[in-house]
Structure formats: structure tokens, C-alpha cells
Specification:
The chain is α/β, with parallel strands linked by helices. 42% of the residues lie in helices and 19% in strands. The strands form two sheets. The protein has a five-stranded mixed β-sheet with strand order 3-2-1-4-5, with helices on both faces.
């Protein structure tokens, strides 16, 4: 393979998706995701179960990614894996697997940051944003506004001080009796609800930082009080509650994004991460495109939630930049970006 057309296998195991993807010269050849269903009945990801499931799924998932790409492992130029942030036991499975492959095949190893990869998912397909741009990165573990100057140059302008927005969606969904992960369920029910029926607080944080723990508490008290008056309150009003919650969370994100646009002067705006799949957020951004002339970049659904194609895309840029790691590198649980 040539330097400009590197063939890379990428592995993602940071949370509860075991995923593998093959990329050649920046073009995705395969993208396999096995979502672990073991966590549903627990109402959240159980780290120990996630690690065991990764162990079970990783080999078939990698084999499927290679087969679908019609690539033999001996042809690979490099192997990449998510280094963090995420659940450490889960990360250890993917990183150890990638290290072993790198040693056995004698090819370089690339360590990818999961949050950078969510942002770089925008370069998988056209239309691709030009540099610099702002990216609102919203997932189950993170909420950030990032200024992206180059494919390897990121500045975090603001972040959540407590819960991530995806976590807020999931925790509120849980107290409404919805299954895990709750974000997509709230989104679905919100479609036929009145978003202005109930009012929940929008936290006022300094600068471009966020807070989402207050809204969760507000919903908990609200539901408890109303249920005392009418035991069927939740059942009868679920769609309106979901729509109102989603409206509050989306407005919280949009307020800060508008401020970031004002402060930075940038109007090229991307969203990334699992919550980028939310229809309310997508509609709010589309309206900014029409009303404020923002250039808006919203990734394909399959590249919003956790996947290995985004790890592969980031690995491609790192390969071109010569960013490799030694075999003794350690995964990290906490965000470094
Ligand atoms: O990026 P991701 O797949 O995993 C992490 O890195 O955390 O994000 C998962 C998060 C979950 O909190 C999930 O509820 C949320 O993304 N999510 C949504 C939607 N689809 C996924 N939240 C709101 N609306 C959706 N349609
Ligand atoms: Zn993610």
C-alpha cells in the first residue's frame, strides 16, 4: 500500500458498542457495530458486563469488518483503537486486541481519542466542513463546544460541569419509566407532544459551560408532585413531558452555541456524538441555517452514535501525520481533550 492510501483496521470498545471498521485512503470500506443488549434490563451500562461482552464480540466483529472490506489482515498498514475516554475495562479489551495485532503483523499502532473521532466523523462523507469550524459534541459522557482549527488541532471552548446532555436524556427517561438508552425514546415520544406545555429550568452557567443536573432534579420533583395529585399523570402526559424536556435540553445547547458563534465569529457549525441523532436538535440547527445563515454539518445517523468508522477516519489523519504509539501505551478513562 502507498503512503497516501493507507489501509487501516480500527477498533472501538469505549462503552457498550463493540465495533470495527476498515478504511483505505480515507474511504470507509466496512463499518460493523455490535450493540450490547446485555445492559437494557439494568437501565444503564454495567461496566463489568460490557468488558465481558467486548471479549465475546471482538473477534467476530473484527473478522466481519475485514471480510466485508475484502481485506486480509496481512494487507493492513496499521491498526488503530480507541484509547479513551471511556470505561477502562472495555478500553483494555480493544487496546489489548489492537496491540496483539500490531505485534503479530508488525504494523504500527494508532491510539485514537474517542471525542476527537466523533468530530472527525464529519470527514467520512461530503459535505465536509472547512477549517476552522465549531463542533458541538454531545454524547452520553460528554458535552463540549470545540473549535477545530485543523484535523489535529482542537480547542475546547466550553464543557459540562456535571452531567452530559445524553446522560440527562437517559436519567430523565429512566425516571419516566422508559427503557435504556432513553434518549431515542424521549425523541420518539416528543414528536407527538406539546413542547411548550411544561416549563423546566435552563441552567445559567458562566461562559460556554453547561450544567444538566438541575433539569433532571426539576423533572423528578415535578413528576413526584403531579403523581401525588393524579396517579396516572405520567401515563396521560408522557408525550408532552418528553417534548417539554427535549425542548429544554435542546434550548440549553442552542443558547451556548449561539454565544460561541457570537464570540468566535465562526458560522460553520457541526454537531457530533449520540445526541446529534436527536430530531429536535437537528431541527433547531436547520432553522439557524435558514434564519442566521450558518453552515450546518450534521453527520449521517450511523456516524452519530458510537461506531468504528469515526475511529478509522481519525486514524487515517493520524497515520498521515505520523502519529503512532508504542506497544506499552495505556488507555485512559477520563477526557483529555
Ligand atoms: O456517542 P454515543 O453513542 O456514546 C457515548 O460516547 O456516550 O452517545 C450515546 C448517547 C446516549 O445518552 C443516548 O441516549 C443518546 O446518545 N442518544 C440520543 C438519541 N440517540 C442517541 N439522545 C437524544 N435523542 C436521540 N435521538
Ligand atoms: Zn461516543
Amino acid at each position: 500500500m502507498s503512503y497516501s492510501q493507507p489501509l487501516i483496521l480500527a477498533i472501538e470498545t469505549s462503552c457498550d458498542e463493540t465495533a470495527a471498521s476498515v478504511i483505505m485512503g480515507g474511504k470507509i470500506l466496512s463499518n460493523i457495530v455490535a450493540s450490547q443488549e446485555e445492559h437494557e434490563k439494568h437501565g444503564g451500562v454495567v461496566p463489568e458486563l460490557a468488558s465481558r461482552a467486548h471479549m465475546q464480540y471482538i473477534l467476530p466483529v473484527v473478522q466481519k469488518a475485514l471480510n466485508q472490506a475484502k481485506v486480509h489482515k496481512n494487507q493492513l498498514d496499521a491498526v488503530a483503537c480507541t484509547a479513551g475516554p471511556g470505561l477502562i475495562g472495555s478500553l483494555l479489551v480493544g487496546t489489548s486486541f489492537a496491540k496483539s495485532l500490531s505485534m503479530a503483523l508488525q504494523i504500527p499502532l494508532i491510539a485514537v481519542d474517542h471525542m476527537q473521532a466523533h468530530i472527525l466523523a464529519h470527514f467520512i462523507d461530503a459535505p465536509r466542513p472547512g477549517f476552522p469550524f465549531l463542533c458541538l459534541t454531545v454524547s452520553g459522557g460528554h458535552t463540549q463546544i470545540v473549535k477545530v482549527d485543523q484535523s489535529r488541532q482542537f480547542t475546547v471552548l466550553g464543557r459540562t460541569q456535571d452531567d452530559a446532555v445524553g446522560e440527562a436524556f437517559d436519567k430523565i427517561a429512566k425516571l419516566l419509566g422508559l427503557p435504556y438508552p432513553g434518549g431515542p425514546h424521549i425523541d420518539k415520544l416528543a414528536k407527538s407532544g406539546n413542547a411548550l406545555r411544561f416549563k423546566f429550568p435552563i441552567a445559567q452557567m458562566p461562559g460556554l459551560d453547561f450544567s444538566f443536573s438541575g433539569v433532571k432534579t426539576a423533572v423528578r420533583y415535578f413528576v413526584a408532585e403531579q403523581t401525588k395529585l393524579d396517579p396516572d399523570f405520567l401515563n396521560h402526559n408522557l408525550h408532552d413531558i418528553c417534548a417539554s424536556v427535549q425542548h429544554t435540553l435542546v434550548q440549553t445547547l442552542m443558547q451556548k452555541l449561539k454565544l460561541a458563534v457570537k464570540e468566535s465569529g465562526l458560522t460553520s457549525i457541526a454537531i457530533a456524538g449520540g445526541v446529534a441523532a436527536n430530531s429536535g436538535l437537528r431541527i433547531a440547527l436547520e432553522s439557524m441555517k435558514e434564519n442566521e445563515g450558518w453552515d450546518v454539518f450534521i453527520p449521517d445517523f450511523q456516524y452519530c452514535t458510537d461506531n468504528a468508522a469515526m475511529i478509522a477516519m481519525a486514524a487515517h489523519f493520524q497515520y498521515l501525520a505520523g502519529e503512532f504509539v508504542e506497544i506499552d501505551f495505556q488507555p485512559y478513562a477520563r477526557q483529555t481533550l
